[in-house]
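Practice record 12: protein with adenosine-5'-diphosphate.
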Amino acid sequence: MKAIYLTGFMGAGKTTIGEKLAEKLNLPVLDTDQEIIKKRNMSIKEIFEKYGETFFRQSETEILKELPTKDVIITTGGGIVITAENRNWMKTQGTVVLLHADLNIIYERVHYDSNRPLASKKTKEELIDLYQSRVTFYKDCSLEVDTSNKKIDEIVDEIISRLKE
Ligand SMILES: Nc1ncnc2c1ncn2[C@@H]1O[C@H](COP(=O)(O)OP(=O)(O)O)[C@@H](O)[C@H]1O
Ligand SMILES: O=C(O)C1=C[C@@H](OP(=O)(O)O)[C@@H](O)[C@H](O)C1
Ligand SMILES: [Mg+2]
């Protein structure tokens, strides 16, 4: 089976849902952020502070291409789609599943989170602007699942059944 890439804005639930999806499909799961942390031996916050977003994006592309592309769930960072090379890689190598949640819910989940440097300290309007700047990239996917007000198990079951369609 080709890799399943979970994409979507920060806080949509990619990391959390990916773990449950992998459990249910009996597949391994890898998270691009976690792999960057391991490779650089630094937190995402530290990478942004010390080396900036450009360096983080380079690491993200490197990692994406190093990860397996068969029989695996890959949960991505919310900004992976801004790089054309990443979008092409995911489309060619696997199935891209977009998770979307209402932006009010997303804001409540991420605006206080200092481990998400591109969300912390942003107003709701700024966060929505960032989302809008990416929305066409997110929509370039095989399947879109709205996660708002749904339980994790419900979302996982929906992904599995819609992947079979
Ligand atoms: N369907 C959901 N219902 C309630 N809380 C959720 C749901 N999905 C994710 N969360 C919570 O939202 C936060 C962000 O989830 P996370 O998986 O880190 O998102 P992402 O990887 O897309 O940034 C976490 O605290 C997680 O527990
Ligand atoms: O949207 C983004 O640009 C980012 C999303 C984060 O991942 P999550 O989407 O898992 O929060 C992480 O990769 C980094 O903080 C940048
Ligand atoms: Mg995540």
